[in-house]
Amino acid sequence: MLRFVFLLMLLGVVLVKSYRRPAIALGALLASYALEQWAQSHIPYFARTSAAMNYLIGVVVLFALACTVVRRPSVVRMFPAVGWWLLGLYAWSFCTVAWAPALEQSISVWQKSLPYLLLWAIAAPLLLSTQSDLRDMIWSLVLVGTVALVLLMVDADWEGRYVFVAGPSATSVRQNPLAVASLGGMVAVAGLLLSVGERWSRRVVLLGAAALGLAATARSGSRGQFLAAVASSAVVLPMTLPRRRSLRGLRVVLALAFLGAAAYWAFTEYATGPRWELGQMDLVVRQTRGDMSKALLGIWADSSWFHLIAGLGSSSSFHLIGFYPHVVPIEVLGEEGLIGATIYLGLIAAIILTTLRIRRLSATISSRLPTETAVIVGLVLFAGALTLKQGSLLGTLQFPFFVMLLGGMERVLKGDASRARRLRTVGTTMPRATR
Hints:
- It is a single chain.
- This protein is mostly helical.
- It has helices at about 1-20, 25-30, 30-40, 45-50, 50-70, 80-95, 105-125, 130-155, 175-195, 200-220, 225-235, 250-270, 280-300, 305-310, 315-320, 330-365, 370-385, 400-430, and strands at about 160, 160-165.
- β1 (about 160) and β2 (about 160-165) form a beta hairpin.
- α16 runs parallel beside α18 (about 400-430).
- The longest helix has about 40 residues, at about 330-365.
- The relative contact order is 0.12.
- The mean pLDDT is about 90.
């Protein structure tokens, strides 16, 4: 009972805070699957009703969205340029349902995935409409994510890498450890990158959260998330340096050193067993992702010219090879064909160009912005790396969410830069007597 009250209090605090600062709700959304696992390990109701946490988080996000639209109605028109590539990919995937070999199965997958895609890829990113929203989102991810990870690490029933659910009437015996690892990776990336631009007191909190994130990722036995979090943080850390200031260089070096130390500690403390041996990793990759990807591409390559161009059909992997191949680009090529692959490559190019433009804009507006925008870039890179080893096009939610946030941030920075230029122009053209 106390755990149930605590969970409601946590979500209640997020809900109240979201009234004035709606982007805070995004932290609860990103931590929702980890919170769900903790709740299901102790509270039988959540174990029996797998969608209960989704409804609670959905209410919080939609409440925050309503507050945003009331205060800033223009957010509904702020659809980012990179979002059109993402929307085009989903639209073409939906069109391919028409010639999928198992039509009812493809329609069923779309029916189950559509509400989550609308929430994560369309509705939730609208909460980011100002520079302060970006900061609220990052801090909410770190703080709510840290709470969820602490609850899982010290107050959940683990057996090996799995969190077990409560009660004999639970819908499943154990939960997916990748949900814990994904949140751990996101907290690690956000905490480490944001720490570079913060004062010492906050930096300690952020670095502690980053270390906890890596520990939780290793504890769940998720090798891909662990490596992706470390690599994404290391690659994006130099982006936190403003162009016109070099004093932060020492902080970047210290952050890299801390990343190495924290990764080493988490690995030696929690990454035990044959699962972490290189030979075992190679065997698993070849026998799962490798073989399934080859099977799907083989069927696609041997198909008609129409299917080569247009694809085998959305979610046809379930019917053709028994499951999706866990490598989203391969899935897109096989199921959506050369047309879908072209759109996917256009999306990747748009992400790269958007990142370059954001880097230029953020460096000219504020000395703090480079660290905050670097967090978004790091999270896009982290989530994108995971699409190479898990999930499906319709089942992957974090990647489209962060891509939309990246595009939305570009719109915000462009507007701020334009207003700053207008103010400078007015200031230089004013008569001396009126200044």
